[in-house]
């Protein structure tokens, strides 16, 4: 390994490397497990999606797609990271507290872990290795 990489992994850049990892891993899981299946199987999802806020299944599915596809991509890029986590957190909270309120911790562990990952990103931001950081650095 190069000295620069080692410094990133164990030096002062380590928290930023951790935020990069959390952004990429969390966004990839959200997109792969939830967003893409909804996008690719729109009609099937529309017939089966819960509508806990009584917005209509179509609106509910569009909101879920916005959070799980658009926001996931923004988070992975580190663009508007804190803002992009808010729809994801809202969606996950509604899902875990309202839709799947009867689930045990074990049954809902994936959702709770995603809440932890995206909650951390909402608090900490995208870190130095994000487009947010590049936009702030420019005059």
UniProtKB/TrEMBL annotation:
It is a multi-pass membrane protein. It is found in: Cell membrane. The keyword Lipoprotein does not apply. InterPro entries: DoxX, DoxX-like_oxidoreductase. It comes from the Bacteria. This is Putative oxidoreductase. GO terms for cellular component: plasma membrane. The chain crosses the membrane at residues 20-37, 58-80, 86-105, 112-131. It comes from Pseudoduganella lurida. Belongs to the DoxX family. Keywords: Cell membrane, Membrane, Transmembrane, Transmembrane helix.
């Amino acid at each position: 390994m190069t000295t620069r990489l080692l410094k990133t992994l164990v030096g002062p850049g380590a928290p930023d490397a951790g935020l990069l990892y959390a952004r990429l891993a969390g966004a990839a899981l959200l997109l792969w497990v939830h967003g893409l299946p909804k996008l690719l199987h729109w009609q099937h999802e529309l017939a089966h999606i819960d509508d806990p806020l009584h917005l209509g299944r179509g609106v509910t599915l569009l909101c879920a797609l916005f959070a799980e596809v658009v926001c996931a991509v923004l988070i992975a890029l580190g663009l508007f990271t804190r803002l992009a986590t808010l729809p994801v957190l809202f969606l996950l909270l509604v899902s875990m507290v309202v839709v799947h309120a009867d689930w045990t911790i074990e049954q809902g562990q994936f959702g709770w872990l995603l809440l932890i990952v995206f909650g951390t990103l909402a608090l900490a931001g995208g870190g130095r290795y994000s487009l947010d950081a590049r936009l702030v650095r420019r005059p």
